[in-house]
């Protein structure tokens, strides 16, 4: 127990520590990472908003300059230096890498904010022409985002040319994150042009925003929604090690503290367990000693003043209660044992009675011996007391036979239950007597019926069959008379067959069928039966095949008469219910040391749910195909009973109507 308690303390102490440790490793890592990514998404949005504001401001400055009156100086042959000074001053005011350029309608340089004015055609001529054609007020060229606007004279609204602002996107680099552990940059997805610090290999960016977690870095990106920088993303890269530096330090601290915590928990657990176990061991030893000696009057005393002392006091109270309960239980058990013995004695006496009167009188006499002269009577009607019910087998109902009368105030509740149980025994014995009498009468009636059938019916039937055969053989009868006499003979034979079947079944059920076992050549017996019934099959143009190659036995020990009767019934049925095709007979030895005879036909077959009905006496199936074949309905029933009598079995198998059937006879070797 000390080991278990020590283990429990260790589990209680270490499980929270382990949960925190596992949380830090598996869950906190992901949680902190997600928090960092969420924060960086906010930072990215701030950078993107600032960048887009700068571009909008540059575009507005260009629009402002194009509306000034000074643009009227853009006239061929009349270029004023004040426009160039204005553009240069505006460039200085914007504190950025940019150039203002003015070109005429023929796309030739007019002036610019460059320290040295340019000459000749505009260098981004084709890109400008394409933008003008698309009516787009900006276009990209290398690392420059170029805004432009058309210039018109203020006095006659004459088209004077274009003013352009060549804005170097490197101006946005100062917006990107820069540091030892983080850096950011703008990225054009198509041209892969990058603005800002870049140390990351090519990234596959998908969707409007997202994040990537690699072994070394946390990467967050978001697409700019400005129409000036379509297809551009801003990307922030944070070094994973530094971002999660606190988490890793804490995990290392926890790993360092783990052995120290285990050692402290083991030490504290050992001391605490020892303090708890000692009084418990003493308590256990005392309990075992009390249990062994069965001395429940003993009490336990411990030199402690904690919860274990309360447990000891409670156990002492339990001992005292148990001792009292055991004494009471022992007394009750003796009384119950005495009552049980008395009940068995009464029951043994009751079941020996042969009549209802004897049963009641003996029961009252036995009960009176137990009641210490307390009066108990039997009244043959329903009254208040222990009522006796018996079954009316003719109506299949329960009827009150009578009542055991006694004064309930003279008996305890347990005694009343005891005498009620005796009343139930009397009911069962009365039912048993009635059932025996009814069964005896039925058996006698059945025996008388069998005797009458045997003497009164079989004798005249045999005479009728004899007379009809005599008339057919020796009298010169007309064809019509021959048919009538033939019908009489067939009907008498059919009736005699039914009576013989009924008599055989009655003898089997009465246990009067005698078996005469002897050694039988089973192959010869089967061959003789097949030879006898082959003409019947030939009349219907049916084939009969006999296969006995798988039979390893030459002879079996059985009753040849009944075996032959079963086989004749089965083979006759197969021929009777088959119109075309044939019958296949197979005899084989099974691994179970049994002989199996199977008779398969191509006849009318039977539904699977009707198979069991065939073994009922006088069974006739309702199917229209099967109805046209006449029969007594006793052949299969008698064959099944005979097979069981021979310690074998008979089975019928079929896949359905018009699919043939198979009869299987199994006999012990």
Describe the structure.
There is one protein chain. With about 675 residues, this protein is α+β, with helices and mostly antiparallel strands. Among the domains are: about 110 residues, Beta-Lactamase; about 120 residues; about 160 residues, Heat Shock Protein 90. Helix content is about 50%, strand content about 20%. It is built from 13 helices and 20 strands. The strands form five sheets. It has a five-stranded antiparallel beta sheet, with helices on both faces. A hairpin with a 5-residue loop joins β1 and β2. α6 crosses α8 and α8 packs antiparallel against α9. The protein is elongated and about 160 Å long.
SSE order and pairing:
Layout: H1 2-66, H2 81-94, E1 98-103, E2 109-112, H3 125-134, E3 138-141, E4 144-152, E5 159-168, E6 182-188, E7 194-196, E8 209-213, E9 217-223, E10 232-239, H4 240-243, H5 245-293, H6 307-350, H7 356-370, E11 376-379, E12 386-392, E13 397-406, H8 413-474, H9 479-510, E14 518-520, H10 522-539, E15 543-547, E16 556-558, H11 560-576, E17 582-589, E18 594-601, H12 624-627, H13 635-645, E19 649-653, E20 661-668
Parallel strand pairs: 15-17
Antiparallel strand pairs: 1-2, 1-5, 3-4, 4-5, 6-7, 6-10, 8-9, 9-10, 11-13, 12-13, 14-16, 17-18, 18-20, 19-20
Helix pairs in contact: 1-5, 6-7, 6-8, 7-8, 8-9, 9-13, 10-11, 11-13
Notable traits:
669 residues; alpha+beta; Beta-Lactamase; Heat Shock Protein 90; five-stranded antiparallel beta sheet; 52% helix
